């Protein structure tokens, strides 16, 4: 039975290396927020690039410390004087009222009128290295030593909305995964399978680039992994996003793209392409998503086209 109260959960799965997965996840999160959806971004990458994009280079408590059970919160009632933070406590706002506040606390300040509303609809569960030095990879390693480790980690992740009124839930949650497939990928797929329909349709977004590494063997391996999980949990791809597409596309890309579009199992999953442009690495360096950095550029319009496609296909509701 579909859960209508739980937020829609979308996993961003990079196929191959340097596909632009995090850039796509961050910028789509911003575009969906601009359309009126409340979006929670989970940075599931040990490097914390998504957190960096939202100007949280050194978050107070990253997700790895919570999942590893590291005591980071001062608590005079605890035997040690500290306790493990809750997921809800480490969730951070993206909106900051001024550039000075963003510089001091992290997050983003609006650049132009009208941006405050959608920035307020974004939150982030950050990754990176915390004060203890514990990373998300450390937490995943610890998880494998416990027979019930995956269930405990999943329960901790899902505890973020315990006690929260339904009206205060996000519409959509994005889980941005690292490029190297590991235990976290299977966990995130199971998490997404438990998602709801508040803001669309839960599932997996496969981000690919026009090369043999991403659109060849790695792509079919990724589909096989999703298919293996789907035999036990209701999870499936909802989109294939071609990214870093150059204006002068080569013969190989054209043939591969046509293969995707001509495959009856894939043709309805291929979203519009996102072009290769210097604005994307620039925006990351500036800690500014495209809607803030270059709101009127064609690559930002690509994000709108992808979101329109996702709406047409029932993946997002706005």
From TrEMBL:
Entry-linked InterPro entries: P-loop_NTPase (IPR027417)
Source taxon at top rank: Bacteria
Name of the protein in its database record: Cellulose biosynthesis protein BcsQ
Organism of derivation: Nocardia alba
